[in-house]
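Section: Multi-chain targets

For targets with more than one molecule, the full set of components is provided together so that the structure can be written out for the assembly as a whole rather than chain by chain. Components appear in the order listed by the source. The example entry contains two components.
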Amino acid sequence: MHDHHDDDLTRRTFLKALGASVALAGLDGCTRIPAEKILTFVVQPTEFTPGIPVHYATSMMLDGYATGLVVEANDGRPTKIEGNPDHPASLGAAGILEQASLLQLYDPDRAKFVRSGTSASTWSDFTHAMAPATLRQRVGARGAGLALLLEPTSSPLVGDTLSSLQRLYPDMRVHYYAPLSPAAASAAFTEAAVIPQYDVHAADVILSVGADFLASGPFHLRYAREFADRRRAPLAGMNRLYVAETGFTVTGATADHRLRCRPTEIEPFLESILATLATPSPSPSASASSSEGWTVALASDLRAHSGASLVIAGDHLSPRAHALVASINMELGNTGHTVWYVQSPLLGAGQPGMTLPPLVAAMRSGAVDTLVCIGGNPSYMTPRAVGFSEVMRRVPNSVYVGLHENETARDARWFVPAAHYLESWGDARAYDGTYSIVQPLVQPLHNGKSAVEVLLAMTGVPAGDSLAMLRSTAARIGVASDDASWSAALRQGFVAGTASSRIAATPRPDLLARAVPPTNRAAGSVDVVFTPGACVHDGSFANNGWLQELPDPVTKLTWDNAALISPGTARRLGLDTGDPLLLRHASETLTIPALIVPGHPNDVVTLHFGYGRTGAERVAEDVGTNVYRFWPAMDEFVINGVSAERAAGVAHTDFAITQTHWTMDGRDQARSDTLGNYRASQRNEKTLQRTPLTIYDPQRRLESPVQWAMTIDLGTCIGCSACVVACQSENNIPVVGRDDVAKSREMHWLRIDRYLEGNEDNPQVITQPMLCQHCENAPCEYVCPVGATVHSSDGLNEMVYNRCVGTRFCSNNCPYKVRRFNWFDYTDEISETERMARNPDVTVRGRGVMEKCTFCVQRIREAEINAGTAGRMFRGTDVTTACQQSCPTNAITFGSLTEPDSVVMRRREESRLYDVLAELGTEPRVRYLARIRNPNPDLESG
Amino acid sequence: MSVSRAPAAETTSGSFPLLKGNEGDAALTDHLLASLWSTPRAWWLLFALSSLGTLLLLGTVTYTVVRGIGTWGNNIPVAWAFAITNFVWWIGIGHAGTFISAFLLLLNQRWRGSINRVAEAMTIFALVNAGLFPVLHLGRPWFFYWLAPYPATMNVWPNFKSALPWDVAAVSTYFTVSLLFWYLGLVPDLASARDRAPTRTRRLIYGVFAMGWQGSGFQWQRYRIAYVLLAGLATPLVISVHSVVSFDFSITQLPGWHSTIFPPYFVVGAIYSGLATVLLLLIPMRRAFNLYDVITRKHLDAVAKLMLTMGLMLTYSYVIETFMAWYSANTAERYTYLVSRPLGPYAIAYWIMTLLNVVSPQLFWVRRLRTNPVALFLISAGILVGMWMERFIIIVTSLNRDFLTSSWHIYLPSWVDWGLLAGSVGFFCFLFLLFVRFVPTVAISEVKELRQQQAAARLAGNRDA
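Its structure, encoded as tokens over all components, is:
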């Protein structure tokens, strides 16, 4: 049968011909086929199918300790970082820094070239200059003029490489430096290099003294999980958390009781606990609201749970405070149960000669001819008094190996771009000593070199041997040297059973005996406390847009640091949020905008490290204030007697704060209650859930066998914001920048709402993840004039981006205000490398369209298709959303309404279940479990 | 026309005459067409100024389309702000024209004849401005036609549950009918202009637009029927357009928008601001073109009385919506009406609105002020500002603090927002200046007819005496 179209030039064939001729005309102009003979892809490597993501286990080292990760790669590009469920430091969760390190890999500001002086150089020039034959002539046969400065590391591979280098240069110096390294903890014991380990799960009563153990530190993911496991079922042995701290932390915000302390009050506080514990039966306090009453009630609670209580000291407390905490734990019989001690796996731990000050002294005296500084950023991260930058410039031959041409790179003669951990082989130990492998997923994007490669080059071994070296190190640790054992270790990402063994540790008696130095704070002066920035850490993550735009969990401040002060201090100094504060101590001054934080102690200023960068990193440029220059000395995180006043002639700063209203104003969107009331409500069978009257059939939407729903437990949500970064990474959410955040245009599909209740001096905090509620009666849907937001049969509120014209009517009618609008073409401004971080399964949205949480619809559909292909029934448990996956406390559960046995539905049987704004009749598919607090009945009045 | 109805017109005119002077028909026509043949120096000055305003509008519109809505101050939660305020404001202004022309024609209010042309022109120009904002306000303005029910190949239709497609339909219908109504009323006067045009070119141009009008009895008969029919069509539109505009807000569940009083409330407010604009335009025009005989104090008095009526109805709406918010016992509703608006970050706008819309029209109880052009001009200008504030209050204070306190955020307009507002005012003036220069500004035929009726009535009165 002949088609009559054959003879005609139809419109379609005409267009085809036209298109083809245009393409042919342009062909010679844009061909990218190489001149050499190339071969097609015939033999497909195992484990690789184009378009199918592959997951690799690896580890990331932060402050020397490893966290096990599983990284997703799409066609060779790492695109998502998740936790390794088997790794002791992760348990499947990943923190904000680990997840955001993906963007660091693709940072367009990463250095790309080797530099010598001011001129471009090459790796081979560098290896030639650093080879033993050449270098010996400079640093002497025994290497007396050679010094290495590394970041703290627990890597046995680095250790082995250093040993072989040391054999070449026996007199070589090796030093380690990171500004936040918790040296004080180790200094508290008579044994050297001791670090405490905790079993948070076993503790009924926990006291944290300045320790943000739920959201920072090498094992915080594990501790958060253990903590939450004891709060998931409030009626079954709920733990109680006391926090005594200065600045508000995530842990403080989660506490059942929080005591705001000036830094000088910490040691007396610990002493009085110790004294109260020693008293046979402390009388219940007359005034429970006073801090003495607090101490007594706390001490008796701790004593009542001897052996099952836990006191944790913050990293940056004094050695004496650590010793006191160790004594309290010993007094309570916790040592050996909830707390025990191990040898620090960090190289050079407990050896004062391997810290930075001796190196600076040597550099100043001219003893160092060649300084090789690998990682870190000491020129920026040291106090000005140390003068590191200046002495480094005086070193005749200095090398800096780093990801960026940062402040230290500018002071170095040689610069070598460093490899990202996803680009290089390596290893590290977790906080408990577990041997973890760093497996690369990609070839170095910019020919960066790892620390091991640089050290190997110095020993004269040609590059590329780091894997062989790693395998021999691993063999020493306990991985059998055959390929099968090695592959198994790689697949797992770590070697089980390699944790450090417990050691005995005794708090130094001299520290315990020493009396507290009198606090002679001049009237009107303040104490200044230095802490890492919640999102940029010590500044090494400052060039990361995800982290800069991630609101601080407590202040909700983005793209800035501030001087945190209490409302009382603000009134005394006549300051409002954003007003400039001038701090003066010795010869140093610092001008920084103030930010008023309820619950902050009076006459204390908290400063965050990590801002005010001046390197070549463009994202970090002009963001915040550098407080390292005001830092008096390393390892001293508190200064007393600082004069504080309003700075004259400095403009007000308009902060980019995502949540400007701190309280709920008497509304009840984020609910909480005490355990006592909750128990009573169980007896009365009272529930929080309100069901509005409706004339519609509630079953009408259950068309599909799977009906998506999410349950979020506010009782275990600590507000750490890992889910926010996970969502950003999974869903290609753009970074909008400081100006647009200040205008309330951040694009986060999932935000953490933070509400304060109670008085401004001692507020209670509740955090609430807020995302699209996927309402069954979605108010956004009926107002869209073009039907761009519609309901799916499995209960999702969907956005059809290509249909959206951008009236924003949906956002106006969304009572939860979770919809986000592309005010500009945000995605087009992203660099070529950062584009590689995008999830290929998620549409990139253009200018002028609305977007919002999809319940990770791409994961749902993928799982649905996989189930269909495999011919099995598709179930709600087949899908994990990105936020759920990253949550260290498992506060988020996701699944189907139609599966009553699933976790998400079983949690909905609790009486503390409620809908936010139920009275509007939106019938949200996201439901919340009210937070149950476990206050000490003796303190409940206060 | 009917001589017997004329005395009624006379009695309604009260103590002020509706028309003054004793010019003959020819002289009156010459007088009223004079503005077409000569250009005062002041016109050039104003035209230059308004051209600058138009350029500002062009510039800000271009900038918005090229860069995106992010150039404005809008955010989440305040996704609608200046542009929608401007839209509702201009639509409201556009109401008085048809109200005066069609509504009053049907009610046989003869005083409308001197001012209806200006009012209709104002309507058209206000609608041109109003129509610009919702399109510009879209994230992707090039797809604005997706809001219209056109036969798309993919069979997708607008969502008729949403108020916005209805809004598009209502405004475009209103614009079409208003334009037709205006043009139809113009035809006899365009013919007069054609007949008196000093040059051949002008004769030709006016001739084309006059569409062969001869003024024959046959033409007049058909013309009258068409005009009354169009008036009949336009009158319900006055009510429906702003009612539909109010649905953009009242169909939501947002405190401050979620209110059944909105349709009448919006219509009243619209007519209120439209009348104020009519006075703002008439008072200078009457002076510039020496129209004291045609636009008399009687006209000013009548418009002022209407404004007082509208002002009282609007006040009633303000009181009732606030009362209902309290009566609802709903936390969020009460917060919006009783805390956020009077005491919140935009309280200044709220109290300016109350002063200008509620308090200032009370001056119209005083007869002397109703007929004092300066007082009328100032109060009208104030009401126009007040009505803009009202829309700003409704839109922004409802959005910026709604249900969840975590999403509360301030809205601050950007320079582009201000530029668009100022530019649209400039563009309106630009169009209006072109109108007074090239189009007969008073309905000459109607004025002449009225004069004949008055003369006949006088004659009849004399005879009776």
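The radius of gyration of chain B is 23 Å.
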